Amino acid sequence: MKPVLLYIDPGTGSMLFTILIGIISTCVFFIQKLSLKIKFRLSGGKEAAAAEQDSLEYVIFSDSKRYWNTFKPICDEFEARKIPVAYWTASPDDPALNEKYEYVSCEFIGEGNKAFAKLNLMKADICLSTTPGLDVYQWKRSDKVKWYVHIFHAVSEGIGYKMFGLDFYDAVLTTGELPEKRIRQLEKMRGLSEKELHRVGITYMDSMRERLDKAEHEAHDIPTVLLAPSWGKSSILCRYGAKIIDALLQTGYRIVIRPHPQSLTSDKEVIDPLMQKYPDGKQLSWDFSNDNFMILNEADIMISDFSGVMFDFAFVFDKPLIYADTSFDSSIYDAAWIDEPMWLFQVLPSIGIPLSESGLNDIKATIDQAMKSEKMKESRTAARNLGWQNIGKSAEAAADYLIEKHGELAG
Hints:
Elements: H1 10-42, H2 46-51, E1 56-62, H3 68-80, E2 85-89, E3 104-108, H4 113-120, E4 124-129, E5 145-151, E6 171-174, H5 177-190, E7 196-199, H6 203-214, E8 224-227, H7 236-239, H8 242-249, E9 254-257, H9 263-266, H10 268-277, E10 284-286, H11 293-298, E11 301-304, H12 309-316, E12 321-324, H13 343-351, E13 352-355, H14 363-372, H15 374-387, H16 394-410
Parallel strand pairs: 1-2, 1-4, 2-3, 4-5, 5-6, 6-7, 8-9, 8-11, 9-10, 11-12, 12-13
Helix pairs in contact: 3-6, 3-16
């Protein structure tokens, strides 16, 4: 008799794996938290002293310096209103640490587990963050925090995070109507209580638009092509590698490669050899600056895959896109729960031109076509109106929500 083989589809298998990891992580961090409390008590009652400290009204947590552009407009708004807020960062070189605020206190709380240990014992009325996975992995909800609020750091419909990314937040500050529909779908499917959804827009894109209004863009004879991939096995550099760089160099155009910061860690085995093979030179350069405004303003066209920076380029700078067909694998993301394709992949064909591996030989013609297309320019406007709402008022709207919610919690 042949043995019976059990089959689990990739999406379900990934979901079960994620749940298992979440359970293991919960146990590990419960033990760590208990150990930390015991250590505090044995060291002279520092835990008891900490418990007597006043709770903070507002805490903003950033797991990376690259999200300072999302939080700075909100911090500026609180500063202008003379309302104290604590900004906690897990990056020792976060630009926030150099700011000269009076009402916003910026603090480096350590990296990795050290940061999460502090977060897990946080005492605050409201915590605002753009970090997904609250109460799923290392970052656990503190019973001394009244309200957790998530804010998006890019145009998003809310299902591009790894599974359960937003499930345990109390509220989400959305970019527009796109994520609101998806969040409600997931809540219903998972039997979750409805979160508060408040539409604010996108803070850093508002700031970028203000900078663009004051900036200059110098015309040049040779087009600048910006290759700006995401990270992971489905990204351009992981899928095409040297092939796409060689094809771009043959165009004769100036090429700037700006890898996603996460790829320097997750895709190191791909990025490092490419940087060695294609060092900075007259035609090609690598860009790792924390602020991407200068290169986005300078570039004439972008080639990307599924990175959110495409919407910065198309919506703020109103410039053409080419997107690589890399067959995105959604099995570990919240998108795996939704039957229809992500909005990102629905809208890309209207605002950009697809690029397959077989099309690399004609990439110059594709670039030239994209830079001349008026139809795509009209489509960018329509997509912008849907994906980026409340333009110019996001920081004010975010601050209004947080302050009003604080008043409710205090009442």
